[in-house]
Amino acid sequence: MRNCILTDLRRVFRKKSFIICMSIILLLMIIGLIVIFVHPFKDGVDSTYSIMMSLAMFFNPFLIGIPVFSAIYTDDFKSKSMQTALGFGISRNKMIMSRFLEALFMVVECIIFLSVMLLIFGLAGGVSMSEIGETVLEIWIDSFQTIGFLALALIIVYGTQKPTMGLVLFILLSAGVFATLIEALSLIPALKKHDIDPEKYLPTGVIVKISDLADKGDYLKAVGPAFLFLIFYVALPVWISMRLFRKKELEF
Q: What is the model's pLDDT at position 153?
């Protein structure tokens, strides 16, 4: 499985779409740095940096998640490389795990790249270390959400063998469509009366809770929600994907 992962990662890192993605992120951060240098907002450099990076975090799932998803899952089904690997004796479970580990590795690498750029550009723009540290921490917490959305999309990918449908689900999750619908449900009088808020149990709601605890410095309290997030929104969807894919006939 290790050789399978390394071989596929080498292929992905040479893809033009992935290189373009990283270039876009770098370009956006350069534009943000120019704004900080040339015309910071009236509240100062730290405020300008915070606003610009909040905008970057909003687009984080799209700029990182979509290229990673396309490079691994869309290409896998399109090129039939998965069928080839299975033909060489790799089990379906190992195939799903290897592809998910590839996606996880790429997301982490992208976040490391983004964190380094945040540090360099923040220092160059005269931003305080405390503001840079808070922003980097938020980026890492936000990456949990991207990983969770990728894992949830796998259920559709391997359940239907149609990665495009999985990508659509990932985009809808990243755009907050389901969170908005659930938030609307929470306005139903019966739920509102009993102060029931289903949104807080969604991936976005859990991430917000982790982020709030981290902002308050309650890192130990944030471990619990983070662990539950990994169980219910990462490990469980991957396991469900394995169960679904095990019963599917491969499409050639």
A: 93
**Closest CA relative to residue 66, chosen from 137, 196, 198, 168:** 168
Q: How many CB atoms lie within 10 A of CB 179?
A: 18
**139 neighbors 118 (Cβ within 8 angstroms):** yes
User: For the residues 23-49, what does the mean pLDDT come to?
Assistant: 70
**pLDDT over 90 for what percent of the chain?**
12
Give the pLDDT of residue 230: 92
- pLDDT average, residue stretch 212-237: 89
> How far is residue 99's CA from residue 77's CA, in Å, rounded to a whole number?
12
Can you give the pLDDT at residue 250? 64
Eight-state DSSP code of residue 235:
I
DSSP 31-100: HHHHHHHH---TT-HHHHHHHHHHHHHHSHIIIIIHHHHIIIIIHHHHHTHHHHHHHTT--HHHHHHHHH
pTM across the whole model: 0.83
Q: Which of 156, 160, 109, 135 is nearest to 211 (CA)?
A: 135
Please state, in angstroms and rounded to a whole number, the distance separating the CA atoms of residues 181 and 197. Answer: 12
Residue 213 tokens, joined: 């605890």
CA–CA–CA angle 119, 126, 121 (5° rounding): 30
Contacts of 22 (CB under 8 A, 6+ apart): 110, 113
Q: How many CA atoms lie within 13 A of 101 on its CB side?
A: 14
